[in-house]
Each structure stands twice: as structure tokens, then as C-alpha cells.
Design goal:
By secondary structure, the chain is mostly beta strands. The protein has a domain at 20-121: Distorted Sandwich (Deoxyuridine 5'-Triphosphate Nucleotidohydrolase, Chain A). Helices cover 5% and strands 36% of the residues. The strands form three sheets. It has a four-stranded antiparallel sheet. A four-stranded antiparallel sheet has the order 2-10-5-7, with no helix packed on it. The radius of gyration is 19 Å and the shape is globular. The structure holds deoxyuridine-5'-triphosphate. Deoxyuridine-5'-triphosphate is lined by residues 65, 81, 84-87, 90, 94-95, 97.
Length: 149
């Protein structure tokens, strides 16, 4: 399936690349940091990083903001709320909530690729309130009730 998603570069970000797939079949569009100046995340610190663009996607789509595995492996930089949820009706700037789980300060530079954005379909769901739920073998078992291995 193919979808058309509108993208709007926000003023002052003409030098920032729009989200881009780095290979033909990549799932994610890489996102570039639109920080005004270098931004240091100390170990354990979190920060909201602007991307310089906003979206309008059709109903039934969402975008997920996910970490880049290379940054996570090399520096412990990940998204605190992964996957971040971008709602189809959100028109504000897309931002990335990063956290430094590494042991060294990490500097985010303008134009650096900091995360990726994956589009997903969202089924239309209506909740129906009932007094009794249908039975299953699992029932209410969860949270490891089948054992560890
Ligand atoms: O990583 C993220 C997560 C969210 N958003 C934007 C788009 C999303 O549509 C909106 C609201 O996100 P969410 O529903 O996760 O936040 P909330 O804490 O429930 O806030 P709200 O009350 O504004 O919905 O914030 C981002 O830009 N980046």
C-alpha cells in the first residue's frame, strides 16, 4: 500500500534535510536534529530535540519515532518514549525525546541524524463495553505465568 503524507519544513530550517530513507527498502525515514546549536546530553539526561518539520498524514496512519541502533550501541542514546507516537491529527513540529543511557556526555549537532520515523496503519477500533468477556485457555494468566524458559 502506498500513502501520500504531506510534509512542511518549518521556517528557519532550510538547511535541515527532510526525513529520508537511507536505502530503498528501509522501514524508517531518518530524522535530522534541528537544534539551534550544539546540545549536550549528560549521562542520564533527557532532552526534546526538534526536527524542523511537521506532517499531515491521512486518517488511519500514525508515525512512530524510534531510536537508531548505531547510536544506541555506540553511545547509549535512545528514545525515552520509544516508539513515540505521532497522531494523524498532529500538526505541530515533530520532536524526538532522547535520553543518554551511556556513561559519557553526548553532543547532538545540528543536522545530525538522531532517530527514525516509521509509518504504520492504525485500524479503526470502537470499544464495546460488556459485563462478561469471552473465555480463553490463557484466561487472566500473564506477566510470566508460563515460566521463565
Ligand atoms: O516522540 C514524540 C511523541 C509525540 N510527539 C507529538 C506528536 C503527537 O501526536 C503528540 C502527542 O503525543 P502523545 O499522545 O504521546 O503525548 P501525550 O503526553 O499523551 O500528550 P497529548 O495530551 O498532547 O496527547 O506529540 C512528538 O512530536 N514526538
Amino acid at each position: 500500500m502506498s500513502y501520500l503524507v504531506q510534509i512542511n519544513r518549518l521556517p528557519g530550517n532550510e538547511d535541515i534535510e527532510l526525513p529520508r530513507k537511507m536505502s530503498e527498502l528501509a522501514s524508517g525515514f531518518d530524522l535530522y536534529a534541528a537544534v539551534a546549536e550544539d546540545f549536550v546530553l549528560q549521562p542520564g539526561e533527557r532532552g526534546l530535540v526538534p526536527t524542523g518539520f511537521a506532517l499531515a498524514m491521512p486518517a488511519g496512519l500514525e508515525a512512530q519515532i524510534r531510536p537508531r541502533s548505531g547510536l544506541a550501541l555506540k553511545a547509549g542514546i535512545t528514545c525515552l518514549n520509544t516508539p513515540g507516537t505521532i497522531d494523524a491529527d498532529y500538526r505541530g513540529e515533530i520532536k524526538v525525546l532522547l535520553i543518554n543511557l551511556g556513561q559519557e556526555p553526548f553532543t547532538i549537532k545540528r543536522s545530525e541524524r538522531i532517530a527514525q520515523m516509521v509509518f504504520q496503519t492504525v485500524p479503526a477500533v470502537e470499544l464495546q463495553q460488556v459485563d462478561v468477556l469471552s473465555e480463553t485457555v490463557r484466561g487472566s494468566g500473564g506477566f510470566g505465568h508460563t515460566g521463565r524458559n
